[in-house]
Design a protein that fits this description.
Distance between the termini: 78 Å
Strand order of the largest sheet: 4-5-6-3-7-8-10
Shape: elongated
Structural class: alpha/beta
Largest sheet: 7 strands, mixed
Strand content: 5-15%
Number of strands: 13
Length: 715
């Protein structure tokens, strides 16, 4: 049967809207397996976007029905309840309630449930069923539930709730076909679950429901569900882009709240207990345990991996293996890319006549883009390890381990997850702070997240380490140790500033950490490699757009105006150019750090993106050399840096300068995209400007002290 046109029910009138693909919202608790299920349904037909006005990542996917008709899926943030305690949960609530002006209310809802934690997961499902929307309940991780000695009767659960229930093991691809068939149905049933609102609260629900229907334009069932939520959380968490409640509804809510406070009764707890009583009755009829539940496999593994000593040892070993792999496994593909980029530049020089066009292609396009693409293998290895840790469930253990040291600086382990994500990129790390309930903790985490060394810094570190330690005889462990030192410096810097901010600008006691540790699972390599491909594509797209554009502009700025002397050397031409003049104007500020005007050009251009520093130095330093009156091939960037000199003939990139430049990039705010995200996240220019000032100021002071002290000691 072909799906009919979308039908909207308003009172007793049915309005047929233009035939369009149905829109499904996918919801569920954290760690319920939503991403794996979305990948199984949509494959690579996904895109990631942000709701205007609020920085919340929203993954959109497209699946096809059994008849080949497209179906849109919105993967909403994971949450335990519609009673929002964080901006992340507020977006989920507002989309399902139809509060968001930029996102239409979904036609149908897919509730993904962790079958091994049925009772807890059904709380969110119970709230969603109140909305009166067609719902498909997916019992995911049925194999995990069976291993824990839990037997669930999907048919009985379907009868109790009145919705379609699909047993599923998304990791193994089981239940996907059945889910696709259910999504293709034109007549999904509405919920028939029986749940009576406690009598003392019924009057307040009726008042709010009437006002929401008359004054806020809600449908009756949606109004009832929203009234229940308002009585639970009093609508305390609001986000930009959400339609506000009318004045009359707020008056009613305030009236009931004051009445309950005067009576000394916790009506919110009464409502929650009533829901759980109904859920317990459902679970009693559909869930039975086949054996006594002892320590699970995950519990036995956690006895070692979250141990106060062995846990830290294991965590340190993982980080060491990560950095060691970045240098060893990636060496061969990096050398291959490096050789072919140099060969391409040499071929273009030999095939084209001398002129600005040839120089643009070799010194601008090839040197700029090739100088950054060479680091793609190492970035892929980094994202592989991050995906592996997330897929196995270890990432949450890392946050648990970090709770104690985080509490010393005024934060808790939940803040470590955004900080850990910032190792890959500060932008999704800052987005991840929306799960933090406390506003002050959230803002502090946003302010220090860019201090974690992201993957964009990786090319800068690698280039400086290669320049600092050019000999192939240097042990790989030494190079990995320097890299680990940079990451540790950024991490301890983030902790130090978090402590400072929590004791000055944002004084508050750190909240207790309550966090779910998901069960350990075998890594789903297909999803990990898909994520790697997505990240690689984004990286290459940046190289092909932003970095290419900046490289071309920078080449122009280094090539014009032309030197008055036609026989001027390339170094003299760059010094005479627009870029050289700007760099020389900046040099008095950065010379105390050991940097000259050419490095200053890289510092300025890398505000677009940190990795642009590599392509900028490739353009500035990879200039043509003359050997015996003949033009040589393009000089590799690392070799060109080793040969760079001050006007007096002393080396520019000494070990002290290389180390100092890495330290500068550890602390400096060199990313306009991050600044823009912080502005949208905080809805103010105050905090991104403050963040840029304190980070760049710290970088200058640290590098000044380090360089001047190093020179005084004779380094």
């Amino acid at each position: 049967m072909i799906l009919p046109p979308h039908i909207v029910v308003s009172g007793k009138r049915r309005a047929v809207v233009a035939d369009r693909p149905p829109v499904y919202a996918m919801v569920g608790n954290p760690n319920s397996g939503k991403p794996t299920l979305l990948n199984a349904l949509t494959g690579l037909r996904q895109k990631v976007g942000n709701d205007p006005g609020v920085t919340v990542e929203k993954k959109m996917g497209e699946a096809f029905s059994q008849h080949g008709r497209p179906m849109k899926i919105i993967d909403l943030p994971g949450a335990y309840s519609l009673a929002a305690r964080s901006p992340d949960e507020a977006v989920l609530r507002d989309v399902l309630l139809g509060r968001r002006e930029d996102t239409p209310q979904p036609d149908r809802i897919i509730c993904v449930v962790d079958a091994s934690n049925l009772e807890r997961n059904l709380y969110l499902v119970h709230q969603i069923l109140d909305l009166g929307r067609p719902v498909i309940l997916v019992l995911n991780m049925m194999d995990v539930a069976a291993a824990a000695g839990q037997h669930i009767e999907p048919t009985k659960l379907e009868e109790a709730l009145g919705v379609t229930v699909i047993p599923c093991e998304a990791v193994h691809g089981k239940g996907i076909l059945e889910l696709r068939l259910a999504m293709s149905r034109a007549d999904l049933p509405l919920a028939r679950h029986r749940w009576d609102v406690p009598a003392p609260i019924a009057a307040a629900v009726a008042d709010l429901q009437a006002s929401l229907t008359q004054n806020d334009g809600r449908l009756p069932l949606v109004a009832r569900a929203e009234a229940l939520l308002l009585l639970t959380d009093f609508d305390t968490v609001r986000v930009a882009g959400s339609t506000p409640l009318c004045h009359r509804t707020r008056e009613i809510l305030t009236h009931w709240r004051r009445r309950w406070e005067a009576e000394g009764t916790d009506w919110s707890a009464t409502l929650i207990r009533s829901r759980y009583d109904a859920i317990n009755q459902i679970c009693a009829g559909v869930l039975r345990r086949t054996r006594e539940q002892g320590p699970s496999r995950s519990d036995r593994i956690d006895a070692l991996l979250v141990h106060s000593f062995w846990g830290w040892l294991f965590f340190g070993a993982i980080m060491a293996v990560l950095f060691f792999s970045i240098f060893t496994l990636a060496e061969y593909p990096m050398n291959w890319i490096d050789a072919h980029v140099a060969a391409l530049g040499g071929w273009v020089k030999g095939a084209m006549p001398t002129g600005d066009l040839r120089d643009l292609l070799t010194d601008g396009v090839i040197a700029g883009v090739g100088g950054i693409v060479v680091f793609l293998p190492q970035i892929l290895i980094l994202f592989f390890f991050v995906g592996l840790l997330e897929s196995t469930g270890y990432m949450a253990r890392a946050a648990f381990l970090m709770d104690r040291p985080m509490s010393k600086v005024g934060l808790h382990g939940k803040s470590f997850i955004p900080l850990l994500g910032s190792y890959a990129c500060a932008i999704p790390g800052i987005m991840a702070t929306r799960t933090i309930e406390n506003a002050k903790d959230r803002l502090v985490t946003i302010l220090v997240a860019p201090l974690m060394s992201c993957s964009a810094r990786l090319p800068v570190y690698l280039l400086m380490i290669a320049t600092l330690l050019p000999s192939t005889a240097v042990p790989t462990t030494t190079k990995a140790g320097i890299m680990l030192l940079m990451y540790a410096l950024g991490t301890f810097g983030a902790f130090g500033f978090a402590w400072l901010f929590k004791h000055t600008l944002f004084k508050s006691a750190p909240p207790l950490m309550i966090m779910e540790l998901p069960p350990y699972q075998r890594p789903h390599l297909k999803d990990i490699f898909r994520q790697m491909i997505e990240r690689a594509w984004l990286f290459l797209k940046n190289a092909g757009t932003i970095i290419l554009g900046i490289s071309i502009v920078l080449w122009f700025l280094t090539a014009y105006p032309k030197h008055s002397d036609p026989a001027a050397t390339p170094d003299a031409q760059i010094a005479f150019s627009f870029a050289g003049r700007a760099g020389r104007a900046l040099e008095p500020v950065i010379k105390p750090l050991g940097f000259d005007w050419r490095i200053g050009i890289g510092l300025v251009t890398s505000f677009a993106a940190r990795e642009v520093f590599v392509s900028s130095t490739a353009v500035v330093f990879s200039v043509e050399k003359f050997e015996g009156g003949k033009r040589a091939n393009v000089t590799p960037v690392r070799a060109a840096l080793r040969a760079a000199q001050w006007p007096d003939g002393t080396p520019l990139f000494t070990p002290l300068v290389c180390f100092n430049l890495m330290v500068y990039y550890v602390f400096a705010m060199q990313c306009m995209s991050t600044i823009a995200v912080v502005k949208r996240e905080t809805n103010s220019w105050r905090w991104p400007l403050f963040q840029t000032a304190y980070m760049t100021g710290t970088a200058w002071i640290f590098c000044f002290v380090l360089y001047q002290t190093g020179r005084a000691l004779g380094f």
